[in-house]
Amino acid sequence: MLKLQIPKNRMNYLIKQIPLHFDAAVLEQGWEYYHKGRVADVDLKGTSIQATVAGKRLHNATVNLEHFADSSCSCSFDGFCQHIGATFFSLYAPYGRPELLLQQLKQQIYARKRPVRGASPAQERKEAAKANKPEETALPADWHRFFEGRFHGFSISHQHSIETFYDSALESLPGFAADWKSSMREIYMLHIVLFMMRKIEQFYQETKSSYLSYYHENGCKIAAKNCEDKLTELAQGMDMNAIFAAEPKHLLATLKMLGEFALQGKDSPIDWLFVYRFIWWKLSGQKEAQKEEIQRLDALLSKKEQLARKKDALIAARAHFHIIQGDTDSAFKLLELLAHPNAKDYFLYLNYYYNDKQWNSMLVWLRWLFKSIAQANHDDFRTFCQYWLDTTKHLESDSEWVQVMESLLPRSYYYYTAYLLQTKRYRQWVDLQLANRISPLNLYTLELKAIEEHDAALLLPLYHQAAERAVLEKNRASYKTAVRLLKKLHALYKQLGQNDRWEHYVYRLADKFSRLRAFQEELKKGKWIR
User: Fold this and answer.
1) What is the pLDDT of residues 410-431, one digit of tens each?
2) Are the CB atoms for 490 and 502 separated by under 8 Å?
3) Half-sphere exposure of 150 (CA within 13 A, CB side)
4) From the CB of residue 486, how many other CB atoms can be counted at a distance below 10 Å?
5) 52 neighbors 26 (Cβ within 8 angstroms)
6) Is the peptide bond between 410 and the residue preceding it cis, with omega within 30 degrees of 0?
7) Cα–Cα distance between 129 and 11 in angstroms, integer?
8) Percent of the chain, pLDDT > 70?
9) Which residue of 66, 255, 454, 511 is 20 to 30 Å from 225, comparing CA positions?
10) How far is residue 290's CA from residue 324's CA, in Å, rounded to a whole number?
11) What are phi and psi of 51, to 5 degrees?
12) What pLDDT, on the 0 to 100 scale, is given for residue 273?
């Protein structure tokens, strides 16, 4: 592979020059030469790139970075040959996928050569440029056809290809709408993200059976999350209701398109339900459009034969309009019909109410989600606990939070134990460690120090339990562990001024395990018994 990387402005210059000098067939042959690894010894000399390209014999190709028309090759071809083309593609490789660029350049070449009857050369150039860019007045479906054409032939061959696609689409497509009015430009940007989401889902479906499916799936999930973040960023910066008033035709077409592919219930890395609900929520003022969508959803839900996942998506979408209208009770009744409820699907609402500081609404949703959170994955469970904790800070009492954490033990152990320490409920904290059979050796020193400073007596049962549990393992290493715990226990009794109680305990312990000779030896080493 090429190690030399020319500046990006020089590469952009070359990309503009290629369609003006090459025939499509010759350029494609150049790509084949590059693809077969026939380009070697690429070097920068002054303002030119020199490379050796293997055809029927070796040829020396020179690409001029400042005056491309002065580029040359040692072969006998009259004009710009496949060897120069192969060198160009090798120069482009560090920036993206050459096969993708080939399709774009061929389209430009065909457009340049297409005759325009009765047109001047200037008009021909204008028509060629027009054929290779989307129209501002075109409908979103036409934009998507243009996007598909730009990325025709793109395929997944390694785990980073998804990220390459994401970067390439986001870099190459927005510029076509640079001179559009702002409302149309914002809708166009939204469709770029929707297009990327659809393509990512397509890549995911196509590579599921590949032996590299794990890497492809991971790449798809990363790109999908980037798309969701980008869509959220775009939508939050848009006044959707004002844009709807200015461009109703395009936004209605957008909503129709979204409704067609977002509620299929497919196995997808894209959270389509989130995308659908997020955009509709931004259009909460469009009552007539909502009414039409509700009628469409009701008609789909009335069909008896539906796949469970698709029906769940339709139910969640229908419930969303109850929530938009402030009818949470009706939404909950509908959501109870879900075959496979997923707590993560409703973090959209928690996040909205959290940012809006609607703590009572947060509490309503947290209570409802309690039923399904126990089966949630680790990340969703953690998010749920954090929402609960943050909401509790704005309530008069934390009793409900404590009750919830106790109900969700042992999964809630880390959140509950941290909260008990934070609120200085040290006795409950110790009881929790005893119930979970946690050794002090597995706890943070600072936590134990805080309780010791408050009341050292609270730690006695914790060390008693851990020491005797270690002895019961009946091996030399465990006996040494028990002695470590006993040393700390001795220090605690001494700190409390209860030396008599310590001596009584240690002799009773020695008597209880009198048959464990190795343990007796460890006690003698500690000079606790004779």
Assistant:
1) 889 998 999 999 999 999 999 9
2) yes
3) 23
4) 25
5) no
6) yes
7) 20
8) 92
9) 255
10) 10
11) -145, 155
12) 92
Q: Nearest Cα to 441, choosing from 372, 497, 489, 394? A: 489
Higher pLDDT, 55 or 517: 517
Confidence of residue 128 (pLDDT cuts 50, 70, 90): very low
Residue 255, classed as helix, strand or coil, is helix
Residue showing tokens 């035709």: 249
Q: What is the pLDDT of residue 392?
A: 92
Amino acid at site 108: Q
Give, as one character, the DSSP assignment of residue 176: G
Residue 245 CB neighbour total at 10 angstroms: 13
The rounded distance, in Å, linking the Cα atoms of 439 and 482 is 11
Tokens linked to 102: 């080939």
Q: What are 380-404's pLDDT values in tens digits?
A: 899 999 999 999 999 888 999 899 9
Average pLDDT, the chain: 86
| Angle subtended by helix axes 182-206 and 140-150, to nearest 10 | 50
The residue count of the chain comes to 530
H helix runs in 132-180, sequence order: 140-150, 161-172
Residue 272 C-alpha from the chain's centroid: 13
**pTM across the whole model:** 0.66
CA distance linking residue 525 with residue 530, whole number of Å: 9
